[in-house]
């Protein structure tokens, strides 16, 4: 959360934070389809917002949010309102991450309902992309 405060105060950028269904204080159960719909709804809200310059939107996501950001940007290729995409400590897809974390999962791939197949969406993004990662991240 501290980096969001820095973005707002020092760079003087507007920030919209989204709590996906099933996360934080939001209700409902999380699902890949639902989380992607929540992100799309947030982007559509920004496109219609009269209080900001809607021609300078940057999509940012960290960890799972990175996969959502990749999908969202891939769903809007060539949209000139989206200036860039930034993803921090995200993954190529849930299955590969799970296999890396839990070696036995490769024998039970059929049990994994979430895909977040970012590796197949990334090539559809036409906006500039910044990938951030660090060796101290113990999960992704």
Automatic annotation (TrEMBL):
Pfam families: Abhydrolase_1 (PF00561). SUPFAM superfamilies: alpha/beta-Hydrolases. Residues 12-94 form the AB hydrolase-1 domain. One of its GO terms (cellular component) is membrane. One of its GO terms (molecular function) is palmitoyl-(protein) hydrolase activity. InterPro entries: AB_hydrolase_1 (IPR000073), AB_hydrolase_fold (IPR029058). PANTHER family: ALPHA/BETA HYDROLASE DOMAIN-CONTAINING PROTEIN, PROTEIN ABHD13. This is Protein abhd13. The lineage of its organism: Eukaryota, Metamonada, Anaeramoebidae, Anaeramoeba.
């Amino acid at each position: 959360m501290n980096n969001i405060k820095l973005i707002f105060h020092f760079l003087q950028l507007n920030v919209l934070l989204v709590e996906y269904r099933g996360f934080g204080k939001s209700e409902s159960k999380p699902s890949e389809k639902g989380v992607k719909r929540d992100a799309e709804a947030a982007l559509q809200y920004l496109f219609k917002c009269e209080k900001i310059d809607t021609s300078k939107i940057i999509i940012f996501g960290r960890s799972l949010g990175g996969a959502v950001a990749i999908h969202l940007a891939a769903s809007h290729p060539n949209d000139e309102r989206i200036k860039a995409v930034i993803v921090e400590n995200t993954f190529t897809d849930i299955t590969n991450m799970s296999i890396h974390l839990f070696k036995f999962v490769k024998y039970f791939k059929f049990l994994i309902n979430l895909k977040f197949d970012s590796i197949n969406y990334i090539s559809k993004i036409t906006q500039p992309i910044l990938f951030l990662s660090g060796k101290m991240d113990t999960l992704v």
